[in-house]
Hints:
This protein is α/β, with parallel strands linked by helices.
Amino acid sequence: MATTLIPGGTGLIGRHAAKLLCERGHTVRILSRRARPDVPLLHRLRIEYVQGDVRDPASLAPAFAGCDAAVLSQQFQNFPVENPKRNETFDAVDRAGTEHCVAAARQAGVRRLVYISGIALGNPNPSHPGIRAKLAAEQAVLGSCISSIALRVNVVYAADDKYFPRLVRAARWSPFVPIPGAGTARCAPVHVDDVARAIAHAIERSTISGVVNVCGPDEVTWKELLLAVAQVNAAGQRKIPVHIPQLLLLLAGWIGERLPTPALSRDAVIFATQFDQSCRNGISCTEAFGFQPIGLREGLRIAFGGGEL
Length: 309
Ligand SMILES: NC(=O)c1ccc[n+]([C@@H]2O[C@H](COP(=O)([O-])OP(=O)(O)OC[C@H]3O[C@@H](n4cnc5c(N)ncnc54)[C@H](OP(=O)(O)O)[C@@H]3O)[C@@H](O)[C@H]2O)c1
């Protein structure tokens, strides 16, 4: 079976893709900045880890050697809050890192590239370094002369993501749900298993190329999403939205940017409050791969409804 390299394979999307690809008989290699990453989801699986950094082209050649395919799923540490002093930025990791991966893949004779992109690229959005970097990364992959596909993924939720499980836990004892800004920006959240499924199809069906959207079937506002997540294990308790004004968040972002280790940034606030992540243009998973991602209500029940978070 084909060997697939996953830069970012220890991350949320990457590790679920690695697990599914292994289960489908693929050989999986993960590129990580760490020598010995510990990824509980992958403990029982035969996975090879290679140490490297997408910002360091020299570290990529050994990782790509002998691979048939690659899933580019890296994201800079502390996303979406950039830290330019440590070169943890959209430009360094999303754009330049992807360009370095494409060069290494070409050198190694890789035959299939899957780039994990974002749905916001398909919509009119504020000028933002994340959009610029991801557009350039998509262009590097799709223009690489290697058979390739960009998956524009919507907001992902999972039992092991960094954000939503915290909200579910907090909602057990608090009736208040913090909503950044007005909460009116739209999205179509998708369960991580469906993202992994789309990645497996993208690897296995190399005749499909270009851009494919990976979205859930239910479009909601961020306010509706956060309230729905808070409600999952709350036994019918009424939840009260508490809006944190956009101006206050931007001020906190301005201060956060000036800390030695930025805790928040204005760009991160804009990303969280203003990006249109509705699924309007482009080819869907159903059209490209023949499957329909699970609905939000059922997906939230599967991810967070067990009461064990
Ligand atoms: N999660 C979402 O809701 C979502 C939605 C749409 C699109 N996306 C896109 O999907 C991709 C993956 O997102 P994610 O949420 O799975 O990210 P994540 O959980 O934050 O994981 C990112 C991974 O990237 C690796 N990484 C960080 N810096 C690196 C570097 N310099 N070189 C090599 N690897 C590096 C890290 O691995 P190590 O620490 O092991 O090095 C980390 O495990 C991103 O491009 C993101 O923009 C995500």
